[in-house]
Amino acid sequence: MALSLITRLLTLALGYAYPAYACYKMLEVHPPQIEQLLFWCQYWILMATLTVVERFADWIVSWLPMYGEAKLLLVLYLWHPGTRGAGHVYDGLLRPLVARHEHDIDRGLLELRARARDVTASQLKAAAAVAQAWLVEAARCVSSQLQAARSDRACAAH
Q1: What is the DSSP letter of 1?
Q2: Phi and psi angles of residue 53, each rounded to the nearest 5 degrees, phi first
């Protein structure tokens, strides 16, 4: 249990915090070093992909012995200056895979955006209708209370 916690903390520090800082430092170099920026873009694309895949496959991989340690080693391999594995994995695996399916991915994203826009529009219309009904009801309630207060004053005056 303690080893798992240490592995997770190391993965956060070495897989996210250190690379984020190294990427920040690279962005602040003037003039920018395009090769380094390209490397860090590849790294973050791979990390995002790994994170998404891991979320969906967690029930499969979480029980594997030494999974956390293997992930830590992969993260180190991806950014370590001696291996610069992000370039190798990106160019040799992810890029060809995405390129083969790029048209389908783009079409799926367009459909998803259109559906999201339609759902958002219908939800906003529904929310506006509810708000309008609530405001009308609130106005009626206030009006009836004002009329009741006027009646009470009129009765008290007679």
Answers
A1: -
A2: -60, -40
Amino acid at 130: V
C-beta of residue 22 within 8 angstroms of C-beta of residue 43: no
How far is 18 from 44, CA to CA, in rounded Å? 12
d(C-alpha 105, C-alpha 95), whole Å? 13
Is 86 within 8 Å of 46 (Cβ atoms)? yes
Global pTM reads: 0.73
Nearest CA to 75 out of 102, 110, 100, 51 is that of 51
SS3 106: helix
Predicted confidence at residue 158, as pLDDT, reads: 65
Distance CA 68, CA 61 (A): 10
The answer to whether the CB of 90 falls within 8 A of the CB of 46 is yes
pLDDT by 10-residue block (mean), the chain, 158 residues: 87 95 91 92 96 89 87 96 96 97 96 93 92 93 87 71
Q: Is the dihedral of CA 105, 102, 59, 76 positive or negative?
A: negative
Q: Looking at residue 60, what is its pLDDT?
A: 86
